[in-house]
Design goal:
Layout (H helix, E strand, L loop, with lengths): L2 H18 L2 H8 L5 H9 L2 H10 L2 H15 L2 H14 L3 H26 L5 H17 L6 H7 L1 H10 L4 H5 L10 H9 L10 H17 L1 H11 L9 H21 L9 H15 L6 H23 L3 H27 L27 H19 L4 H21 L2 H18 L6 H15 L1 H9 L7 H19 L9 H8 L16 H9 L1 H22 L6 H22 L6 H24 L18
Length: 633
């Protein structure tokens, strides 16, 4: 065969693959599936929507809202909480320095007196913390600036606090002039320093900082949700991490309701929101079959699912969506860095592995999670957002996205989680194929790269890849046996479910468990777990919810115009698909922090798609080259 014919065949094959994802294919095969605006219009004409819409504008509701707003505006407690951040941020930085200095000196004096009277050694941790406070306070004593000006003085801090975490800078900018230095802060520090006899020296500053954060959340619920999205992976420091996260989610929800009733926010109601409400109701009903233990798990799950509702109603414009993309990428970079350092230092745990097949693997990185598969699910969930940041136009964002992507890939390898690898690969391919049909060329390039890596590390990476579907791996045999037992249990309680939580699962699963798989605490699949725990109807609602997100995303993929919100929608849905692929092989919702982030990403996908549909031009007038993206470093 001549070179000309060979080149012609390759060109024709490339053109055929491109047309499969082009405008013609979408118009002919997927336009009916992706025709979201028409279905939303029909929904707005339905009786359900008119019912809620009519109630929201009724005279009784307006009267209640006005009365509630009046009580909030005149509440002493709420006025204090609303005014506390403003007064602090616009105060002189000397007040903070004087408080820390007097508090530290008073605490140290109290510790020495207590040690002398009780004849006990000094607490080295308390003394070290006091020294750090003094070293931090001394340089601030020579500054006459306000806290706001200090925060805005650095480009990084200004971008991090006001652009990424959405602090309401306009309110503080009007009062940027610092107030006078007050001796009351010195007196308060001296009095509070006496408390170290009963509590840790960190308790008072942490409580003040927590009060400041809660006040800012009341002023701006968007800041609270952004902070939760960033901090959720790091809550492993406490054995009550789920309850802590659930408490903050409820507080953000309460803050949003306050804003909503006062007329400071509006809510979005659409088709997938209705399905989401039914899904949440199904999860709450799963507490009925068992009782108290199941009710606690169902309630926490429902609270974590509020991440979708809050994301849809709080991240309502392009700037906030880009801020969330940066937050998720930054959080993923920190998590990945810690996981890599953990593996290098030899602190990665040795469990969850068949050492007879993989003797060369010295451990599996878990980072801030308790399980490498949960870490892998988080990395699969966050990886497309790093890709989105990497393919943007801002040079600093491209660098940050590239760094986060590289760290995520390295950390994912060190988890040795095959479900994570598959999920990240699917998310990688989907994002770029959504972005441009020409990205199908990444498939052979990726296949060659993975094959080369397997040959370079044949005893670790190559062996792990080859064992993906091998029944010689004890982990695979165990997972298949759990699936078999779960399927048998599902056949008997498919209509109502066994109930949410570990105890409800085990109470049913033990009657159907197979040999060597009796100790399972979940079904190792989010789909099986939803069906077995909450019933087949709830599982169907979950699948419909994901399909509705797909419909919205396909509306963006058919357009051929560069649009930031469309790219964010592609990244978010790729992230959802990555988590679902990982969830086939493990119950990633077993970790409530991953569940919360998953539903937040679903909300980001929904609102980004809606904004992209509102702003993009029609497909017929679009340029076929407009959506192509060149990744430059």
């Amino acid at each position: 065969m001549s070179d000309r014919k060979r080149i012609g065949m390759l060109s024709g094959l490339s053109k055929t693959l491109e047309n499969a994802f082009s405008k013609k294919a979408l118009n002919s095969g997927m336009s009916r599936l992706s025709d979201y605006p028409s279905s939303e219009k029909l929904f707005e004409e339905s009786a359900v929507f008119r019912f809620f819409q009519g109630r929201s504008v009724s005279k009784k509701m307006l009267k209640f809202k006005n009365r509630f707003a009046y009580l909030c505006e005149n509440s002493v407690l709420l006025n204090f909480l609303y005014g506390f951040p403003s007064k602090y941020v616009t105060s002189c930085i000397k007040n903070t320095a004087a408080f820390l200095l007097s508090y530290s000196l008073s605490a140290v004096s109290t510790l020495f007196v207590q040690s002398y009277l009780t004849d006990t050694p000094l607490d080295s941790f308390q003394l070290s913390a006091a020294v750090i406070f003094v070293m931090f306070a001394l340089p601030l004593l020579i500054s006459d600036s306000s806290v706001y000006r200090l925060l805005c003085g650095g480009t990084f801090l200004k971008s991090l606090l006001f652009d990424t975490f959405f602090m309401p800078k306009n309110e503080y900018a009007e009062k940027a002039n610092p107030g006078k230095f007050s001796l009351l802060t010195v007196a308060a520090g001296l009095l509070l320093g006496l408390c170290v006899r009963h509590v840790s020296i960190l308790a008072v500053p942490v409580c003040i900082l927590l009060l400041l954060i809660l006040s800012i959340i009341l002023i701006s619920p968007e800041s609270g949700l952004a902070l939760l999205v960033f901090c959720a992976p790091f809550l492993s420091f406490s054995s009550y991490s789920s309850l802590i996260l659930a408490s903050f989610v409820c507080f953000v929800m309460l803050s949003f309701i306050f804003k909503l009733l006062r007329g400071r926010r509006i809510q979005r109601f659409s088709v997938e929101t209705l399905v989401f409400l039914l899904l949440t109701f199904g999860v709450l009903l799963s507490s009925v079959p068992v009782g108290t233990a199941s009710a606690k798990a169902a309630l926490i799950s429902a609270v974590m699912m509020l991440g979708y509702y809050l994301s849809v109603n709080l991240f309502r414009n392009e700037d906030k969506l880009m801020g969330v993309v940066r937050i998720i990428s930054l959080s993923a970079a920190v998590v990945s860095s810690y996981g890599i350092i953990q593996y290098i230092l030899g602190e990665a745990p040795l469990g969850w592995l068949d050492f007879s097949l993989f003797p060369e693997i010295s451990g599996r990185s878990v980072s801030f999670f308790e399980n490498p598969n949960m870490l892998g699910a988080y990395l699969a969930l966050s990886f497309p957002f790093s890709l989105e940041l990497m393919s943007g136009t801002d040079r600093s964002c491209r660098f940050a996205g590239t760094l986060s992507s590289v760290l995520s890939v390295i950390c994912a390898v060190l988890t040795w989680s095959r479900g994570c690898w598959l999920g990240m690969f699917i998310g990688f391919v989907l994002y770029f194929v959504f972005l441009t049909p020409r990205s199908v060329v990444l498939l052979p390039v990726s296949a060659v790269s993975i094959t080369a890596a397997a040959f370079i590390f044949p005893d670790t990476l190559g062996q792990r890849l080859l064992s993906f579907f091998s029944m010689s791996d004890s982990a695979n045999r165990y997972r298949v046996r759990v699936w078999q037992g779960s399927f048998k249990a599902l056949s008997d309680c498919w209509y109502s479910g066994a109930g949410a939580g570990d105890m409800a699962f085990r109470s049913v699963y033990l009657n159907y468990s197979l040999t060597s798989a009796e100790k399972a605490v979940h079904s190792h699949s989010i789909f099986l777990q939803l069906g077995l725990g909450c019933g087949i109807i709830t599982l169907a609602l979950f699948c419909i919810f994901i399909l509705l997100l797909l419909r919205k995303t396909l509306c963006c993929s058919g357009t051929q115009v560069k649009c930031t919100t469309a790219r964010i929608a592609f990244a978010a849905f790729s992230s959802v698909c990555s988590a679902c692929i990982s969830g086939i092989f493990d119950n990633v919702f077993y970790n409530y922090r991953v569940m919360f982030l998953f539903y937040c990403v679903c909300g980001i996908c929904s609102v980004a798609s809606k904004l992209a549909i509102d702003h993009l031009v029609t497909r017929d007038s679009a340029s076929p080259e407009a959506v192509d993206v060149t990744i430059s470093f």
